[in-house]
Amino acid sequence: xxxxxxxxxxxxxxxxxxxxxxxxxxxxxxxxxxxxxxxxxxxxxxxxxxxxxxxxxxxxxxxxxxxxxxxxxxxxxxxxxxxxxxxxxxxxxxxxxxxxxxxxxxxxxxxxxxxxxxxxxxxxxxxxxxxxxxxxxxxxxxxxxxxxxxxxxxxxxxxxxxxxxxxxxxxxxxxxxxxxxxxxxxxxxxxxxxxxxxxxxxxxx
Length: 205
Prior knowledge:
The chain has helices at about 25-45, 50-60, 90-100, 135-140, 155-160, 165-170, 175-180, and strands at about 5-20, 65-75, 80-90, 110-120, 125, 150, 185-200, 200-205.
Protein backbone atom coordinates (compact mmCIF):
# COMPACT_ATOMS: atom_id res chain seq x y z
CA UNK A 1 0.00 0.00 0.00
CA UNK A 2 1.51 3.31 -1.10
CA UNK A 3 1.06 5.63 1.87
CA UNK A 4 2.79 8.69 0.43
CA UNK A 5 5.32 9.60 -2.23
CA UNK A 6 8.22 7.95 -0.42
CA UNK A 7 6.78 5.29 1.91
CA UNK A 8 4.98 1.96 1.92
CA UNK A 9 2.82 0.97 4.89
CA UNK A 10 1.92 -2.48 6.23
CA UNK A 11 -0.75 -2.28 8.91
CA UNK A 12 -1.63 -4.43 11.91
CA UNK A 13 1.16 -6.98 12.13
CA UNK A 14 0.25 -9.22 15.08
CA UNK A 15 3.09 -10.40 17.34
CA UNK A 16 2.68 -12.55 20.46
CA UNK A 17 5.52 -13.49 22.82
CA UNK A 18 5.73 -15.72 25.89
CA UNK A 19 7.09 -13.89 28.94
CA UNK A 20 9.98 -15.82 30.51
CA UNK A 21 12.31 -13.24 32.04
CA UNK A 22 12.92 -9.52 32.23
CA UNK A 23 13.59 -8.87 28.56
CA UNK A 24 12.43 -5.83 26.63
CA UNK A 25 9.52 -7.61 24.95
CA UNK A 26 8.20 -4.50 23.23
CA UNK A 27 11.56 -3.99 21.50
CA UNK A 28 11.68 -7.67 20.52
CA UNK A 29 8.11 -7.53 19.16
CA UNK A 30 8.97 -4.45 17.07
CA UNK A 31 12.01 -6.21 15.58
CA UNK A 32 9.91 -9.29 14.76
CA UNK A 33 7.23 -7.07 13.19
CA UNK A 34 9.83 -5.62 10.79
CA UNK A 35 10.62 -9.05 9.36
CA UNK A 36 6.96 -10.16 9.24
CA UNK A 37 5.86 -6.91 7.60
CA UNK A 38 8.63 -7.00 5.01
CA UNK A 39 7.94 -10.66 4.20
CA UNK A 40 4.20 -10.02 3.95
CA UNK A 41 4.65 -6.96 1.77
CA UNK A 42 7.12 -8.55 -0.66
CA UNK A 43 4.91 -11.61 -1.01
CA UNK A 44 1.94 -9.31 -1.76
CA UNK A 45 3.62 -7.28 -4.47
CA UNK A 46 5.64 -10.00 -6.23
CA UNK A 47 4.88 -13.36 -7.77
CA UNK A 48 8.02 -15.02 -6.45
CA UNK A 49 7.70 -18.23 -4.45
CA UNK A 50 7.71 -17.69 -0.69
CA UNK A 51 10.91 -19.70 -0.16
CA UNK A 52 12.73 -17.51 -2.74
CA UNK A 53 11.50 -14.39 -0.98
CA UNK A 54 12.50 -15.82 2.40
CA UNK A 55 16.06 -16.27 1.10
CA UNK A 56 16.14 -12.65 -0.03
CA UNK A 57 14.86 -11.40 3.35
CA UNK A 58 17.42 -13.56 5.20
CA UNK A 59 20.19 -11.91 3.17
CA UNK A 60 19.35 -8.37 4.34
CA UNK A 61 18.58 -6.49 7.54
CA UNK A 62 14.86 -5.57 7.47
CA UNK A 63 15.61 -2.70 9.88
CA UNK A 64 17.59 -0.95 7.12
CA UNK A 65 14.41 -0.58 5.06
CA UNK A 66 12.19 0.74 7.87
CA UNK A 67 11.25 4.42 8.01
CA UNK A 68 9.08 4.11 11.12
CA UNK A 69 6.49 2.13 13.03
CA UNK A 70 3.49 2.62 15.30
CA UNK A 71 2.03 0.35 17.98
CA UNK A 72 -1.72 0.24 17.35
CA UNK A 73 -2.48 -1.78 20.49
CA UNK A 74 -0.67 -3.96 22.99
CA UNK A 75 -1.53 -6.25 25.90
CA UNK A 76 0.56 -7.40 28.84
CA UNK A 77 -0.75 -10.53 30.53
CA UNK A 78 0.75 -12.77 33.18
CA UNK A 79 2.48 -15.09 30.73
CA UNK A 80 2.50 -13.27 27.41
CA UNK A 81 2.79 -10.00 25.55
CA UNK A 82 0.96 -9.21 22.31
CA UNK A 83 0.82 -6.21 20.01
CA UNK A 84 -0.56 -4.95 16.71
CA UNK A 85 2.18 -2.98 14.97
CA UNK A 86 2.09 -0.97 11.73
CA UNK A 87 5.37 -0.66 9.82
CA UNK A 88 6.50 1.96 7.29
CA UNK A 89 9.09 1.18 4.59
CA UNK A 90 11.22 3.47 2.45
CA UNK A 91 9.72 3.20 -1.02
CA UNK A 92 12.98 3.80 -2.91
CA UNK A 93 14.95 1.28 -0.84
CA UNK A 94 12.33 -1.44 -1.40
CA UNK A 95 12.18 -0.73 -5.13
CA UNK A 96 15.99 -0.70 -5.40
CA UNK A 97 16.15 -4.05 -3.58
CA UNK A 98 13.71 -5.61 -6.02
CA UNK A 99 15.27 -4.01 -9.10
CA UNK A 100 18.81 -5.12 -8.14
CA UNK A 101 17.52 -8.68 -7.74
CA UNK A 102 15.53 -8.40 -11.01
CA UNK A 103 12.24 -9.14 -9.26
CA UNK A 104 9.10 -7.80 -10.93
CA UNK A 105 6.52 -6.21 -8.65
CA UNK A 106 3.26 -4.29 -8.56
CA UNK A 107 2.47 -2.14 -5.53
CA UNK A 108 -0.52 0.01 -6.42
CA UNK A 109 -3.66 -0.11 -4.34
CA UNK A 110 -6.28 -2.62 -5.47
CA UNK A 111 -10.02 -2.07 -5.86
CA UNK A 112 -12.37 -1.21 -3.01
CA UNK A 113 -14.01 -4.54 -2.16
CA UNK A 114 -17.27 -5.21 -0.31
CA UNK A 115 -17.42 -8.37 1.84
CA UNK A 116 -20.81 -10.10 2.27
CA UNK A 117 -20.50 -12.83 4.96
CA UNK A 118 -23.20 -15.56 4.93
CA UNK A 119 -23.69 -18.58 7.21
CA UNK A 120 -25.43 -21.78 6.11
CA UNK A 121 -26.67 -23.74 9.14
CA UNK A 122 -29.47 -26.30 9.44
CA UNK A 123 -30.95 -25.36 6.07
CA UNK A 124 -31.00 -21.71 7.12
CA UNK A 125 -29.13 -18.80 5.56
CA UNK A 126 -27.97 -15.97 7.81
CA UNK A 127 -26.77 -12.62 6.54
CA UNK A 128 -28.33 -9.65 8.29
CA UNK A 129 -29.83 -11.68 11.15
CA UNK A 130 -28.45 -11.31 14.66
CA UNK A 131 -26.39 -13.20 15.66
CA UNK A 132 -24.15 -13.79 12.66
CA UNK A 133 -20.78 -14.78 14.21
CA UNK A 134 -19.26 -15.00 10.71
CA UNK A 135 -20.12 -11.32 10.15
CA UNK A 136 -18.76 -10.53 13.63
CA UNK A 137 -15.49 -12.31 12.82
CA UNK A 138 -15.00 -10.04 9.80
CA UNK A 139 -15.87 -6.99 11.88
CA UNK A 140 -13.20 -7.90 14.44
CA UNK A 141 -10.61 -8.69 11.78
CA UNK A 142 -8.40 -5.67 11.03
CA UNK A 143 -9.77 -4.63 7.62
CA UNK A 144 -6.58 -2.80 6.79
CA UNK A 145 -6.00 -0.90 3.54
CA UNK A 146 -2.83 -2.67 2.43
CA UNK A 147 -3.24 -3.61 -1.23
CA UNK A 148 -7.01 -4.15 -1.17
CA UNK A 149 -9.46 -1.96 0.75
CA UNK A 150 -12.04 -4.29 2.31
CA UNK A 151 -15.41 -2.98 3.51
CA UNK A 152 -18.40 -4.46 5.33
CA UNK A 153 -22.00 -3.31 4.81
CA UNK A 154 -23.57 -1.56 7.79
CA UNK A 155 -26.70 -3.71 7.78
CA UNK A 156 -29.04 -0.74 7.71
CA UNK A 157 -32.70 -1.03 6.72
CA UNK A 158 -31.86 -0.13 3.11
CA UNK A 159 -29.27 -2.92 3.02
CA UNK A 160 -31.88 -5.46 4.14
CA UNK A 161 -34.27 -4.23 1.45
CA UNK A 162 -31.59 -4.18 -1.25
CA UNK A 163 -30.14 -7.66 -0.71
CA UNK A 164 -31.31 -10.82 1.05
CA UNK A 165 -29.16 -13.82 1.96
CA UNK A 166 -30.90 -15.77 -0.82
CA UNK A 167 -30.08 -13.03 -3.34
CA UNK A 168 -26.42 -13.06 -2.33
CA UNK A 169 -25.95 -16.83 -2.32
CA UNK A 170 -27.65 -17.10 -5.72
CA UNK A 171 -25.45 -14.26 -7.04
CA UNK A 172 -28.35 -12.09 -8.22
CA UNK A 173 -26.22 -9.63 -10.11
CA UNK A 174 -28.32 -6.45 -10.07
CA UNK A 175 -29.17 -6.71 -6.37
CA UNK A 176 -25.53 -7.27 -5.44
CA UNK A 177 -24.53 -4.43 -7.77
CA UNK A 178 -27.02 -2.07 -6.11
CA UNK A 179 -25.49 -2.79 -2.69
CA UNK A 180 -21.99 -2.34 -4.10
CA UNK A 181 -22.99 0.99 -5.62
CA UNK A 182 -24.24 2.21 -2.24
CA UNK A 183 -20.81 1.56 -0.71
CA UNK A 184 -18.94 2.74 -3.83
CA UNK A 185 -17.09 -0.58 -4.06
CA UNK A 186 -15.69 -1.89 -7.32
CA UNK A 187 -15.61 -5.56 -6.33
CA UNK A 188 -17.82 -7.78 -4.14
CA UNK A 189 -16.89 -11.05 -2.44
CA UNK A 190 -19.68 -13.25 -1.10
CA UNK A 191 -17.97 -15.22 1.68
CA UNK A 192 -19.97 -18.31 2.65
CA UNK A 193 -19.32 -20.54 5.66
CA UNK A 194 -21.31 -23.72 6.24
CA UNK A 195 -21.67 -25.27 9.71
CA UNK A 196 -22.54 -28.94 10.05
CA UNK A 197 -23.21 -30.51 13.42
CA UNK A 198 -21.15 -33.64 14.04
CA UNK A 199 -21.90 -35.29 17.41
CA UNK A 200 -20.67 -32.75 19.99
CA UNK A 201 -18.74 -30.59 17.56
CA UNK A 202 -19.21 -28.62 14.34
CA UNK A 203 -17.56 -28.98 10.96
CA UNK A 204 -16.79 -25.82 8.97
CA UNK A 205 -16.49 -25.51 5.23
